[in-house]
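step 4 of 6: structure.
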Amino acid sequence: GENVEQHPSTLSVQEGDSAVIKCTYSDSASNYFPWYKQELGKRPQLIIDIRSNVGEKKDQRIAVTLNKTAKHFSLHITETQPEDSAVYFCAASTNGGSQGNLIFGKGTKLSVKP
Amino acid sequence: DSGVTQTPKHLITATGQRVTLRCSPRSGDLSVYWYQQSLDQGLQFLIQYYNGEERAKGNILERFSAQQFPDLHSELNLSSLELGDSALYFCASSVGWDTFGSGTRLTVV
């Protein structure tokens, strides 16, 4: 089955710097890759997603890139702010995300220092 | 608000007991996915139901079972509880959308 690895497990940056989180997946059939932000004790919230027919997607300060050949995808956060501090999870899914379950990475705890 | 409702929000119970967690999917969604989030295992997919039928199974223990009813709400039954079952249990009703419920925090003492 699918396996998703996520690095780093913790990341500390200064406010205003960029943060990059990387994930690799094992199942070449995976075709949907969402990223979730989770604050302590709260539900995971979708922040951005990408499908396998797209190489890059941006939404304001957040961007995701996908390399299907290498089977890895990355989350880029620019101009980080203290409120970006949270745990970020990547995930992969087959069936284009419509009916397939999500397999999650272990998470990255991002700390943004003022 | 994701439109997915989970109850109860918190549950404290003793080892060996049985509990039931409930999830109502977002209006119009036919699927319910159950996930377990523990400190050491992260977010793990347990089981999916689609329109009343089991569709996919993940790392769900034999002590755990689920079902989806005709009104599409789902229940996750956890029995013979162990300390290690303490976790946040989330359900979602559609991948690709922001549809995780707020979760049930289960504490086994």
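step 5 of 6: annotate
 - The mean pLDDT of chain B is 93.
 - The first strand of chain B starts at residue 5 and ends at 7.
step 6 of 6: archive
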